[in-house]
Amino acid sequence: MTKYIFITGGVLSGLGKGLVTCSIGKMLQVRGFDVTAVKCDPYLNVDAGTMNPYIHGEVFVLDDGYEADMDLGSYERFLGVNLTRLNNITSGQIYQAVIERERRGEYLGRCVQIIPHITDEIKRRVRQVAEETGVDVLLIECGGTVGDIEGLPFLEAFRQMRLEEPRGDTLLVHVTLVPVLEAVGEPKTKPTQHSVKELRAIGLQPDIIVARCEWGLLQEEQKRKIALYCNVEERAVFTSINVNPIYELPLILEEQGMGVLLCEYLGLERRRPEWRGWRGIVQRFKAARERVRIALCGKYAEFADAYVSVNEALRHAGAAVGCTVDIEFIETEEFEEKPESVEKLSEFDGVLVPGGFGRRGAEGKIAAIEYARNRGIPFLGICYGFQLSVVEYSRHVLHLEGANTTECDPETPHPVIDLLPEQREIDELGGTMRLGSHPVVVKPGTLAHSLYGSEVIHERHRHRWEVNPDYWGRLEGRGVVFSGWSPDGRRKEIMELPDHPFFLATQFHPEFKSRPWSPSPPYYGFIRASLEAKRRRVEVTSHA
Ligand code: GLN
Fold first, then answer.
1. Residue 381 CB less than 6 A away from ligand 1
2. C-alpha to C-alpha distance for 350 and 378, rounded to whole angstroms
3. CB distance 391 to ligand 1 below 6 Å
4. 492 Cα: distance to centroid of ligand 1 (angstroms)
């Protein structure tokens, strides 16, 4: 029988509720319990695929091709589980299912309502994950903050489940903020009290409070206050502090006794946690002595959440290589307005052009790629970065004037990147790209092969365009090596330039499969090459 832990948030969004969820999962995993996590997103989008990453954070792609909320990326990175579309429940999906059922006449004669129809559908989906995975404990995180109107049906479903499941088989963890006002100089518990009041008004009593506090661990006095006013035990009040790396949070919460309490409250067998492996991983991040500087040349550059998986993959690779990765976001439109500003890339040890869409900033990305290619700066191109690398090479080495992707210029004389044939007839935007895990054949004797050490790999995709077969021969004739392709031979997946210190670009997104204990091979190779480039530079300047 699966037990359930519901995680809600109060006061503000962005408190790291997702990381608390991951940490809870980890504390149970190291005790030998099987866990997985579900994210409930109260928005009306059916999935995150159509949302702007600049506002909502990255779209995380699962093996099955589902375009998920970015919290699912954290779940995968912490828990090492491969999630499916069942692990993300949105209001859009719930309403769509209920309305379709209504149209089919399945509720004939009845008035279709939020309670019970919407809440029943939420409960059905949560329990479906428990049944299909058979985990010991299922974590269910609700997006947003208590008090949001759109979150109410989810919280009501949680309330009902707590009543319906055997007593002691469910737990509610509420994550809040304990702010500190400089002028007052002490942490304030009032917002936490208010947000729990809000929860209690809808029939939910938290069992555990996790308070985020930038000042460090809460003192006994504040814990006592929170316990008293929020109606929880004093030992059930924990602090989530700022940590680096984020993978340290489970250890911080464990030290406060959270793992033991979770087991006690859920009536789980008390087992000794085995933290050795995880601690080793965290240690690797902390032990890194050298630093590399990477230029992340994108469009949503000013918003770090737009590229979480890329950032994490870079950090995983850094920890494995033994260096800290300093990532600097560069808005490539700047290179379009002031072409000479591309020179600033000379200060970096590596240049990365990530995935993206549309025209804005594309010419600037091409300028960044050209610079990295000509100057021998280690380069990694991801998806759009791969496609624009082909455009750059076509223009500047093959001298195909005006070469472009038809995404930016439908009239280009040289459509070196063109729509996938199966994309031409599609006119709906949601969930219609080439998505999810697909096999890629890797050519022996290439850089890609040396990094993956395998002739067939599986990586996740999210794209509509691809390298136009009409240009394969010309590109290969002038130094491009396509070191990966789809098994049917119909599309190119990896590009590299053998006479460059490190130039690798992939049609897929390897960052989605990077884990702190097993970095993604292209990212690993890229950071290793960037570190070597840096060492070489340091040597040159110290000899000068
Ligand atoms: N816009 C490009 C395409 O759709 C690349 C997509 C991406 O980078 N994820 O093919």
1. no
2. 5
3. no
4. 14
Q: What is the dihedral of CA 155, 160, 163, 166, to 10 degrees?
A: -90
List beta partners, residue 503.
379
* pLDDT over 80 at 431, yes or no: no
Of residues 47, 498, 426, 20, the one with CA closest to residue 239: 20
> Do the Cβ atoms of 154 and 122 come closer than 8 Å?
yes
CA atoms of 362 and 368, how far apart (whole Å): 10
Query: Which CATH fold topology does 3-280 show?
Result: Rossmann fold (3.40.50)
Q: Is the CB of 465 under 6 A from ligand 1?
A: yes
Show which residues are catalytic: 383, 509, 511
Which of 365, 386, 464 for a ligand 1 pocket mutation test, highest count of atoms within 8 Å of Cβ?
Answer: 464
Where do the CATH 3.40.50.300 domains begin and end in the chain?
Answer: 3-280
List alpha helices for 89-219, DSSP H: 91-103, 119-133, 152-164, 190-201
**Residues 442 and 412: beta-carbon distance below 8 Å:** no
pLDDT at residue 528 is higher than 60: yes
Average pLDDT for residues 343-349, to the nearest whole number?
96
Q: Is the pLDDT of residue 542 over 80?
A: no
- The CA 364 to ligand 1 mean position distance, Å, reads 16
- The CATH-assigned architecture of domain 288-539 is 3-Layer(aba) Sandwich (3.40)
Ligand 1 center to 385 CA (angstroms) = 9
pLDDT at 54 over 80: no
Q: What residue owns the CA closest to ligand 1's atom 8?
A: 355
**Percent of the chain whose pLDDT exceeds 70:** 99
User: Rounded distance, CA 401 to CA 412, Å?
Assistant: 9
Distance 230 CA to ligand 1 centre (A): 48
Per-residue pLDDT tens over the stretch 85-138: 999 999 999 999 999 999 999 998 899 999 999 999 999 999 999 999 999 999
Q: What pLDDT is attached to residue 340?
A: 95
156 CB near ligand 1 (under 6 Å):
no
- What would the pLDDT profile of 315-330 be if each residue is shown by its tens digit? 999 999 999 999 999 9
Task: Report whether residue 462 contacts ligand 1, using a CB cutoff of 6 Å.
Answer: yes
All CATH 3.40.50.880 domain ranges of the chain, comma separated, are: 288-539
Site of tokens 């940490």: 23
Higher pLDDT pick, 335 / 182: 335
Q: How far, in Å, CA of 465 to CA of 467, rounded?
A: 7
Could you tell me the pTM of the whole model?
Answer: 0.94
Report CA(462)–ligand 1 centroid distance (Å): 6
**Residue reference for tokens 């909320």:** 69
Is 307 near ligand 1, meaning CB less than 6 Å away?
A: no
